[in-house]
Amino acid sequence: MRVSILKIIIFSFVFFSLFVLWQGLKKNNNYDTKSLVGARISNFQFTEINNVNKSISEKDLKNNKFTLINFFASWCLPCRTEHKYLINLSKKKIKIIGINFKDKKKNANNFLKELGNPYNFVGKDSDGKASVLFGVYGIPESILVDNNLNIIKKIIGPIDQNQYNEILNLIK
Amino acid sequence: MKIKKIILIIYFSFFMSLNADENYRDVSEIYKNLRCLICQGQSIADSNSDFAVTIKLVVQDLISEKKTNDEIYSFLISKYGEWIVYQPSFSKNNFLLWTLPYAVLVLGGFIIFFIVRKNKHNRVN
Amino acid sequence: MLSNIGIGLVYSILALSFLTIYNAHLDLKIINTTVKKIIYKLSLFQITFTILSFFTLILGFINSDFSLVNVYENSHTTKPLFYKIAGTWGNHEGSLLLWVNILVLFSYLFLIFNHIHNKKFRLYTLIFQNILIIGFVIFLLFNSNPFNSLYPIPLEGLGLNPILQDPALAIHPPLLYVGFVGCSIYFSAALGSLLSGYNGKLFAKSIKVWVVTSWCFQTLGIIVGSIWAYYELGWGGFWFWDPVENASLLPWFAITALMHSLIVLEKRNVLYYWVIILCLLTFILSVTGTFLVRSGILNSVHTFASDPSRGIYILVFLSLMIFAALTIFFTKYKKETYDFNIKSKETFILANNWFMAFFLATVLIGMLYPIFLDVLSNIKISVGPPFFNIVIIPLVVPLLFLMAIGPKFGWIKSQKKIFYKILFLILGSVIINLFIFNFFGKYSFLSNLIFIASIFLILNSILDIKKFINNKIKLELSRIISHLGFGLLVFFIGINHQFSLEEDFNLKVGEIKKTNNYEINFESMRIKESKNYKAIVGNFKLTNLKNNLVEYLDPEIRIYSNPETLTYEAAIETKITSDLYLTMSNVSRSDYYNIKFQKKPFMIWIWISAIMIALGGFVQLTFKKNES
User: Fold this and answer.
1) CB–CB of C375 and A23 under 8 A?
2) Which residues are paired to C475 by β-bridges?
3) Per the CB < 8 Å rule, is B119 touching C357?
4) Radius of gyration for chain A, computed over Cα atoms and rounded to the nearest angstrom
5) In terms of C-beta density within 10 A (0-12 exposed, 13-18 middle, 19 or more buried), how is residue A120 classed?
């Protein structure tokens, strides 16, 4: 009898494990932080890239119904492809803050002159440390927050048509 | 006694070059426990990527602010998720992870104990 | 043309497997003691065709025959000849052909070297081994075929990843596969023994040499992989508890347990069903490891390029294997009575199995848990070196003690004299450890225990060598060497871990960095051009501030052309007492270079001790007549 119970336990356990492994094959094993939404962003302060006396902090975002914080750099190729969506968004009911990541002032200004400036404020993060406060690990990345400073959506990589539509839906 | 002398001599010649350096261990231990998010299975210590460089700077800042190792890990976990640390937390989710190996150990111990006890009386001379 | 030859040969292997199974099935019905001649012939043809198919692929690589997809994807005309050949098994499809070769080779060798054993047993073993061969050949033919052809034939290949172009990595797969795949034969033999009701002692005798052989090669394969990682990957470490490394460790624990249990089975004819379980488990673990590593389910630095269809196939094969093994085992299982003595060698061998089971379970759980958690609750966590180190290392301490004490006990009740000797040696170990602790640096309580335990094992082994030379004990040279190697390995890894120096900083050319112990001078930089790469070489002068000794190290940043890859070559100065390790990498958008400097005590001794462990096994193979 004891051996029969053991048999059943072992067989079920093996079957279960193989089933889980099979399901595991279907899962994507590249990690991303898209699911880290809902938390409040931490307190921050950025100085403007062209004016050290001007700065922005989280308090300034409380007045906006929605803010999109976009991390970009002049040397980042995908940042160019997403830029047109940012320009479009700047005309909607949403404030866009650009954080210039590990970049040089001159190059950033040229980048914006060439492709247009959708940002209400362009902050600088020359060593990239401040981006860690937002859980950013590559660029471009964009974070949509509401007036309570909660993260509604994280976009990893350049904004494409689908994500653009999603953002429009969320900020209605 | 002769063996002891030989061993002592070997030690003197071998171990002259050893020195323990406490200061730098802290930082590299933290780096080794952090996972590089954009690399295929490398730690922050081993990676040369942009992300690794940035994280190292942030960790150095946190250390100079006298934050403990746990505080540093909690901070990074809150930003990047649990995936970023190589040492899984001892939480509800990971309870089985930490306890199952020891359960196996205990189970094995019991099995051996019962086998040996059952045959205490069947000793072969 | 090579494509057709290759595929033809592989199909013939398949056909021969079916024929072998059919003929063996017929021969089983004939009650005598000799296996039919035709079966020997079929097996001989099979191994011949298998080796020929392997040579066909090698020829394709040597000739840079890009009509073969496999050669196109993994080779290049400018590659040195040695690496062209090694490229044959350095990719998924080619390595699978190597698997098949070893499966067939062991099938053949087991058949011809076991004349003295029971016919039914040998035939069943042959049948099961050929079922395994069929499974793998079908996988090869229909999913991962190295002989698939390409038209139009490209003029040049894609090349082999330069970090794989290394002598250690060239021999790493063949070594490891003799271990990994070699264990298939005693998987089949275990099933064969169950079905033929074979005697435990005789079964042990029949598989012993295969177990020891696969153990030796598995051990060497793992060591060579670590050596490659240390010299090539540029992080200065040699073990990362990475999924691929763990996959090779799982069967190793099982084979070690099996090897020890075989001693008991052979001598006292007990533990038969436990040995069977271990035989089945080892190959199951090999295939599980292969699944985890090649299916893409796990994220790792050294996975092969992954493909989900591979994963499904291997998983199906693995499931069939496990269910078949379980069914046959439970059908044939009979309750065994054990005839044990507590204070005897048997208990210690049981203890060895106990610890191996624990280590195996830990590594397996560590590998599988993130997968299970992700599938069941959609949470992603990482299980890395800290987990494995925290769980495993403390248990190494009692293991070391048991390894030292266990061999002292005989097969029958033992004397009290041993107790006092043990106490004396423990005292000696504690004293030596205190010496290190006092004069060289403080370390944790656990580290103290590790040092005491490893020194204890080392002292015991040295004394055993003395006894062996004086002919006082029976010839157990292989055990002494392997256990001594293990003790030394733990000891040197402990020292290496405690007393390593690491510095990470940025320098520009011409700058000097001063640390507590060293002055590192980035003297100059030059460009080096080689056959298939260009390199930026940094010339560094390192001065040891304690004794003013100077070393020159030249790390490189290499830019390979085919395929276009960037690698970082560490400059390593190996000395008897320590290694100096220097890597240089560029910092994007800056003139600075990131420099990592490490001083690693006793690295070379770590390799020597590890090889010593394997050496003990080889000694067993060569002098097996003398083992009592």
Assistant:
1) yes
2) none
3) no
4) 22
5) middle
What one-character DSSP code corresponds to residue C601? E
CB C190 within 8 A of CB C279: yes
Domains and CATH numbers, chain A: 45-170 (3.40.30.10)
pLDDT tens readout for residues C514-566 = 888 889 999 999 999 987 789 999 999 999 888 888 999 999 999 987 677 88
Query: Which residues in chain A (78-107) have CB-CB distances under 8 A to chain C?
Result: 102
Residues A75, A20: contact at Cβ < 8 Å? no
C-alpha distance from residue C337 to each of B119, C143, C258 (Å): 9, 47, 19
Is the CB of residue C13 less than 8 Å from the CB of residue C6?
A: no
Q: What is the pLDDT of residues A91-146, one digit of tens each?
A: 888 899 999 999 989 999 999 999 989 999 999 998 889 899 999 998 899 999 98
Choose among C296, C326, C368: nearest Cβ to A10.
Answer: C326
Mode of pairing for the β-strands spanning C501-507 and A151-156 = unpaired
pTM for the predicted model, two decimal places: 0.91
Task: Kindly state the helix (H) or strand (E) to which residue C477 belongs, with its residue range.
Answer: helix C477-499
Residue C343 half-sphere exposure, CB side, CA atoms within 13 Å? 8
Helix ranges (H only) for C119-199 are 119-142, 167-180, 184-196
Give the separation between CA C410 and CA C401, rounded to whole angstroms: 17
Q: Do B112 and C499 touch (CB under 8 A)?
A: no
User: Identity (one letter) of the amino acid at A146?
Assistant: D
Q: Which of B85, B118, B123 sits opposite C341 (nearest CB)?
A: B123
Query: Residues A131, A137, A142, A145: is their CA dihedral positive or negative?
Result: negative
Kind plus residue range of the DSSP H or E element containing C512: strand C512-514
Is C504 at the interface with chain B, CB within 8 A? yes
How far C604 CA lies from chain B's nearest CA (Å)?
Answer: 13
Cα maximum dimension of chain C:
84
Q: How many CB atoms lie within 10 A of CB C120?
A: 19
SS3 A161: helix
| Of B76, B78, B89, B84, the residue nearest A39 (C-alpha) | B78
Q: Is A41 exposed, middle or buried (0-12, 13-18, 19+ CB in 10 A)?
A: middle
Domain positions in chain C are: 1-165, 183-340, 415-499, 501-602
ipTM score here?
0.88
Of B73, B97, B96, which is closest to residue B83 (Cα–Cα)? B73
**Does the beta carbon of B58 lie under 8 angstroms from any beta carbon of chain A?**
yes
Residues sharing a CB contact under 8 Å with residue C68, sequence separation 6 or more, in sequence order = C2, C3, C6, C57, C60, C146, C147, C148, C149, C150
Residue matched to tokens 């470490």: C237
C269 CB-contact burial (10 Å; exposed 0-12 / middle 13-18 / buried 19+): middle
Q: Of C432, C407, C435, C440, nearest to C421 (Cα)?
A: C407
Q: Are C297 and A21 in contact (CB under 8 A)?
A: yes
Work out whether strand C501-507 and strand C593-601 pair parallel, antiparallel, or are unpaired: antiparallel
